[in-house]
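Morning!

This is the sequence you dropped in the shared folder:
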Amino acid sequence: SDEQEARRLLRTAFGQDHPFALHYPRDAGFDLPAVEPEPIPVGTGEVLREGSEIVLIGFGPIVRRALEVADRLTEESWSVAVVNARFAKPLDTELIVAQARGKKLVVTLEESVVVGGFGSAVLEALAEAGLADAALRAVPVRLIGLPGDRFVDHGSVVDLRRLTRLDADGLMAQVNETLDEMGARPARARQVEARSA
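The structure's back. Tokens below.
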């Protein structure tokens, strides 16, 4: 999700004895200091933020915007977790399943086509885990990324993210639209309403 992680992923890639694809961003870095990169164990994600109601799961530059969306959702009284999956394949299935369990909503975020992409892999992992865990079967999943049915225009990264609703404002709007469709309310808001009733 930043230039230090990109260096670590490059180091990880060079240490593999099989094909290894990197999703290399066009973004500028965040001016973080250069450090000696340590390899990242393949297929391991990390929890950047704990939360009990919604989990945002992504990889690459979109994770920074996921943290911004989480901050904004917290201002609306939601408890939001953020997971940096780091890898689209192999997934850290154990981490993703653990973070999805008990949530009101799982949101996958990717700057690639959602059809057959990262979000689809998360859905498959949750469906497989849900065979033995009824609580997982009840958790809705929203895939946010590029639609597979149209071409994306040319332009700057900033403009393209805005047009495809993958900038922070667009991500926030899509999550809120999903919550509205579900009729979901944050637990803290319901507690306040119950006290005032």
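Headline: The first strand starts at residue 46 and ends at 49.

More detail when I'm at my desk.
O.
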